[in-house]
Amino acid sequence: MAKGLFDCTGKVTLVTGGNGGIGLGFAMGVAKMGGDIAIWARNADKNEAAAAALRAAGAGRVETYQVDVASEEAIVDGYAKLLADFGRIDCVFTNSGRASRSRSVLTLDSTEWHDLLAVNLHGAFFTLREGAKAMVARAEAGEPGGSLVYCGSLSMFHGIAGINNYAASKGGMGAAVRGMAAELGKYEIRANSIAPGYIKTGIGGDGEMSEEMKARMAAVDAHFSAKTPIHRPGAIEDFEGIGAYLASDASRYHSGDTIVIDGGSLVYPPYAF
């Protein structure tokens, strides 16, 4: 049954890190519009819970895979399995990543530098590259189109002390995505980044935190809420709409962009009062 402007029926979306947080929010938007979803994530229990929630939300089909996106070989093998199962790929959301363990450029060693980039930069690039190959093959067979999406951050715009490897991965992939948009447009494949602000992802929920940690998190929430024009933290549900939009044909002429979802914080200077 058609679901209106953002209809995703018959389209297959891959979400890396899709069993929680922003990835699950994006996938949930696609599910509510009837799309088929493949999740790549390493925790089997979380994968199954996410799959059940997506099916209940209206997804046509959901399959989960344990794929290590730090491995180019695992990514290539993962696509072989995905395409054998679904027969096509229409949207890829590269969301897997980790935070920097660094606190200063002066102590950021080579192990931490390369370990983070293996996932946040290289893994994201290879995931989009392999998705693009499948979309180009489909276009050359007579069915153009496709959507490549990268999950960036506000560090693509801001200078943030200490987390240089994290910011480098996000900024570097932003540039790579713009290059993909320029190269792949002839196949009607669009490529965009999403830049989230401060988002409450549900990791380390209240039941898992000490009272001290709950108080600290409440203070962090209050700090960011006070500096955000929409005075609250973001939620994973705030990514459902952009997920449905970018996976559907409604976004078919939207490419080369970085879409900021941050409650207005990017445009609000820190000295404003």
TrEMBL record:
Cleavable signal peptide: none
Pfam name, any one: adh_short_C2
Catalytic activity entry: 2,5-dichlorocyclohexa-2,5-dien-1,4-diol + NAD(+) = 2,5-dichlorohydroquinone + NADH + H(+)
Protein keywords: Oxidoreductase
GO MF term set: oxidoreductase activity
PANTHER family from the UniProt entry: 5-KETO-D-GLUCONATE 5-REDUCTASE, SHORT-CHAIN TYPE DEHYDROGENASE_REDUCTASE-RELATED
Family as reported in the entry's similarity comment: Belongs to the short-chain dehydrogenases/reductases (SDR) family.
Protein name per its UniProtKB record: Uncharacterized protein
Organism: Sphingobium yanoikuyae ATCC 51230
